[in-house]
Each structure stands twice: as structure tokens, then as C-alpha cells.
């Protein structure tokens, strides 16, 4: 199961200048719940996973679309792609995915939901006394 994003990035670079690639099922693999009992997932042995390409794994090449369950987009909310409606609590993000860069990068320090990430970072530092 995953969030089945209909996502084609507009940018040619991502995450601090890395090349952005476009491929089928883009960002589907960024939040996955595997059904280990599904017959087709039995091929995912350590040997196969360690020898296949990233493309094979990230695109779930061994599965048809109809064999992949769907999770609501709020569980893998793509910053800059998915939209929040302040009047609809059912579409508030539960897990935020900074697809092009997050607030830990200087050029993205003011991106959408940066305040939440920075607040959590400060809380973590206080808890672990890293301030």
C-alpha cells in the first residue's frame, strides 16, 4: 500500500541541486506498507533486493497498479504539490514529504510547513540536550 501520487515534478533539480528524474509511480515508494502475504511480494528476497536497480524497487515493477493498495495522500503529503484546505480537517497532512528540499537547507528554510519541522528539531535538541 502507498500513496498513489499523480506527480510529475516541474523542477529539473531537487534536494540541494540533485537531478530530478521523472518516472512512472513517482514518489509512490516514499511511504510504503508492504503486504508480506501478497503472493507477488514473495519475490522480494534479500538477494533480489540487493541486486535489483533502484528503478525496479521504487516503481514496484513486479506489481500491476491494481495490485497496489491506496493510502490517502495526507500520509505522504508532498510539499509544493498537495494542497491544504484550512476549512477541511480531513486533508490536513499527517506525514510531510519535502520533495524538492526541506527547511534544513538554507534556500528552503521558509518552505511550507518549515515551522513544524524547525519546531520539532528544537524540541528534539532540548530533549537530547544538543542545544
TrEMBL record:
This is Protein CDI. InterPro entries: Nucleotide-diphossugar_trans. It comes from the Eukaryota. SUPFAM superfamilies: Nucleotide-diphospho-sugar transferases.
Amino acid at each position: 500500500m502507498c500513496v498513489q501520487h499523480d506527480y510529475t515534478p516541474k523542477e529539473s533539480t531537487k534536494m540541494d541541486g540533485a537531478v530530478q528524474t521523472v518516472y512512472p509511480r513517482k514518489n509512490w515508494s516514499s511511504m510504503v506498507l508492504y503486504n508480506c502475504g501478497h503472493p507477488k511480494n514473495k519475490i522480494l528476497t534479500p538477494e533480489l533486493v540487493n541486486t535489483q536497480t533502484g528503478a525496479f524497487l521504487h516503481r514496484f515493477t513486479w506489481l500491476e497498479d491494481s495490485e497496489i493498495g491506496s493510502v490517502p495522500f495526507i500520509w505522504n503529503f508532498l510539499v509544493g504539490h498537495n494542497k491544504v484546505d484550512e476549512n477541511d480537517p480531513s486533508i490536513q497532512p499527517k506525514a510531510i514529504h519535502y520533495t524538492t528540499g526541506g527547511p534544513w537547507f538554507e534556500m528552503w528554510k521558509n518552505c511550507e510547513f518549515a515551522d513544524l519541522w524547525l519546531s520539532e528539531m528544537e524540541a528534539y535538541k532540548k530533549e537530547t540536550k544538543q542545544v
